[in-house]
Prior knowledge:
Keywords: Hydrolase, Metal-binding, Metalloprotease, Protease, Zinc. By secondary structure, the chain is an alpha+beta fold. The protein has one domain (about 5-105, about 115-140): 3-Layer(aba) Sandwich (Cytidine Deaminase, domain 2).
Amino acid sequence: MRGAAFPPEVLARMIHHLEAAWPHEGCGVILQGEHGEGEEGPWRVVPLPNVSPTPRIAYAFAPDAWLRVCLEAEIRRETLVSVFHSHIDTAATFSAEDRRQAAPGGVLLLPGVSYEVISIHGGRATSASSSQWMDGDFQGVPIPLPDFRFEKPL
């Protein structure tokens, strides 16, 4: 699972955005560049606006923002690594709705991409999971969340 392998600063930026979005679900993507000759390059966390009509229980990327991220990633030679979002006052598990959006009708929309879900209670991240498509369904594992409260601001 990819999520557990993110550098601490990537997790911190993701958590910061999701906590700031509370009491609504926050969302975004994580991209990774390349240095050349197949070497992994720098990470980029891109928060996206949640335009869901029910933002406390669902997320949806703004189509224009999503298109802009995709075009920028192509120019910068970045790979989409992860889609992330928060769940408000509930478990950090990949829900039936999450599955439906990521693989409508069982057709995976973003092959090779992991999905990180962070549970936010009272504006603070409390738990997280990473899910990836394996053997025809999403399989998830917990992600340990370090406490970033005492580190310098991002």
